[in-house]
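Appendix B. One record, verbatim.
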Amino acid sequence: MLCFSSYLSMASFRRISAVFLLLCSLICLLHGVSSLGINYGQLGDNLLPPQQVVNLLTANNITKARIYDTNPQILTAFANSNIELIVTVENEVLGEITNSEAGLQWVSTHIKPYFPATKITGIAVGNEIDATDLLPNLVPAMSSIQGALSQLGLDSNIKVSSSFSYSVIKESYPPSAGSFKSELSSVMSQLLQFLSSTKAPFWINAYPYFAYKGNSKEIPLDYVLFSNAGSSAGVTDPTSNLHYDNMLYAQVDAVTYAISKLGFDGIEVRVAETGWPSKGDVGELGASLENAAIYNGNLLKRQLANEGTPLRPKLDVYIFALFNENKKPGPTSERNFGLFQPDGTSAYNVGLFGSSSTSTNAPSPPSPSLSKPPTSATNSTAASSSPSIPLKSSSSATNSTNASSPSSLPEIGMTYSFGAKATTMGSLVYIFLCVLTFQFCMMI
């Protein structure tokens, strides 16, 4: 009797262990999905209505999004979707909400009616901050919004921060030399004190594309496209001895070092915007379908692997952008940063949909070298404004591919946790594993 009881106990233990491992696998899968964020811009006259956008994000298991205002239609459409949403206080409003009464009115009007049905997790006070005329109002506006959230009991759920243009960085190479522009040090110190006290992140817009376009002779294409993974190519910081196989991580760590130089070490740096255009004007070197697919595809793979930078173990990234937006001003590239066309079809395959693409002879990018990759303000600017880099009159034949030929895209491995078809494949695989586990448990 004792032996039989012991056998049952052992069998139960094994079954429980198998189920536990299965649940752990599922949790890891979901955690990978939740690492993806995307910027939902609205500068187009032919975009999907907000409810269909929610369906698009849900079908692709995209669980985080950021918008550039507090559009009531979008906030209403996102209700009960379980998609985490960051909203924005427009730049032109900052001067109007610097006192507590105005902050309370803004939060009561734009946040409280929609929360918690709409899962608002952050408020960006201003977007792509770099202009000195906005800086004096920035911290007072953030403080008034924070005070209003506290007064309404929402401060534990919603973090207040801002997003900055990379032009606020004076030095970025090597990353350990990272520093803010000296004229911004006073405001930055106040801002960082605010973020430190509220445990909110510092958001930066970082675009290796603009750095490459501005100085392709010194910056290897592989370095900006995340194509050096698993190799010794890239750059090594002579001070920290940390190795960087891609420019984005170097840019992010430069910001972390800049923050540290002002006396703040515990503030998390997150990427508010990064991306690559799938089309550009003749002088916009590197803007092509192939390069966009490689950059965003490689970035997505790293996000799914929960990869951090060499300096920090975790990195949250929001890709720019959800759609190609036909009303964005500036060169052609500005209207072609989207992963999707305005009607919701994919602009190119980055592994979201599970469709395999045919590998053809892609142009060979230059070999990465240890040449200094400039990431100064003139070479790294956000996609939501016209880049300040002069356009080069250069043939795109050597560093970009024919943007009119999607079939020439290199094969990017399918990530079955994303996309309608991909999600179906993932579900089938998961069900198959469940059945196998159940049969194994019954055989014990």
